[in-house]
Design goal:
disordered N terminus; 233 residues; Rossmann fold; single chain
Length: 233
C-alpha cells in the first residue's frame, strides 16, 4: 500500500469510528470491564503478555490486568485512548507484526476480522498470531455471525468478510491452531444505536447461557497453539 492510500485509509477509519462510537465510549468501557471480570478472566492470567488485535479505543486492553499489554490498530485516535501501560503497534495486521516469535500468551480480538479487506488478509493475520503466540497460547475471537445477523451484517460500511463460527474455526485449523470452543451465539450484535442497558442486566445475561441462544448474534471462538504445533505452510 502506498503512502497516499495508507493516509486515506487511516483518515477514513478515524472518521468512521468517531461518528460510530464517539457518544458511547464511556459506556462501552464499562461494558468491557464487566465482560472481563464476569467472563473473560477465566482465560487470562496476571503473568500473561496479551495483544488486543484491532483494539479500537482500548476498552478491552485498558481494563485487563496482566504483565504486558499490546494494542494493534490503524486508527490514529487509538494511541491517545490507550493506557500508558499499553504498547501501541500502529500497523497493518496482515503484515509481519512488530513482535518476536513466541512472545504472547493471548491474542484477543473483538468485532475486527469482518473489517479486514479479504480472506487472504485474514489468513495472513492468523499466521502472524500463530507465530507470535507461545506454545499453548490462546487466540480468543468475537465477531458478528452471519448466520445470526443475516442482512444486518451489511449495515456497516466497513464490513467486508462475512464469517460464521465454523468458517473461522476452519481457517484457524488451517493456520495450525486447535479449537477449544466455537460457539455460534454469545453476545448481542452491536452497541451502536442500541439502548444503554444497566450493567447488572449484562452480568445476569452472562450467567444465563440459555439466553445466549435467543439473543446472541456474535460468535465466540477460542483456539490454542497446541504444544506439538508445527509451523503451518
Amino acid at each position: 500500500m502506498n503512502e497516499a492510500a495508507s493516509t486515506e485509509q487511516t483518515g477514513q477509519l478515524q472518521e468512521i469510528y468517531r461518528a460510530r462510537f464517539g457518544q458511547t465510549r464511556v459506556y462501552r468501557a464499562e461494558v468491557w470491564k464487566v465482560l472481563i471480570s464476569d467472563y473473560f478472566e477465566r482465560y487470562l492470567r496476571s503473568s500473561d503478555h496479551i495483544l488486543d488485535l484491532g483494539c479500537g479505543y482500548g476498552e478491552f486492553i485498558n481494563a485487563v490486568h496482566c504483565a504486558r499489554k499490546f494494542g494493534m490498530d490503524l486508527n490514529p485516535d487509538t494511541r491517545a485512548a490507550l493506557d500508558p501501560s499499553v504498547t501501541f503497534l500502529a500497523q497493518d495486521c496482515s503484515e509481519r507484526w512488530e513482535l518476536p516469535d513466541s512472545s504472547l500468551d493471548v491474542v484477543f480480538t473483538s468485532n475486527f476480522f469482518e473489517h479486514l479487506p479479504s480472506k487472504e488478509a485474514l489468513s495472513r493475520t492468523l499466521a502472524e498470531a500463530w507465530r507470535c503466540l507461545k506454545q499453548g497460547g490462546r487466540l480468543i475471537a468475537m465477531g458478528p455471525n452471519i448466520r445470526r445477523v443475516h442482512a444486518a451484517y451489511w449495515d456497516f460500511w466497513d464490513h467486508h468478510i462475512p464469517l460464521t463460527h465454523l468458517a473461522l474455526a476452519e481457517v484457524l485449523r488451517l493456520r495450525g491452531f486447535s479449537i477449544e470452543m466455537a460457539r455460534e451465539s454469545f453476545m448481542p450484535y452491536t452497541l451502536v444505536d442500541a439502548p444503554q442497558y444497566p450493567l447488572f442486566l449484562l452480568r445476569l445475561y452472562l450467567r444465563l447461557p440459555l439466553a445466549w441462544r435467543f439473543f446472541g448474534r456474535q460468535f465466540l471462538v477460542v483456539a490454542r497453539k497446541a504444544d506439538s504445533a508445527a509451523r503451518p505452510s
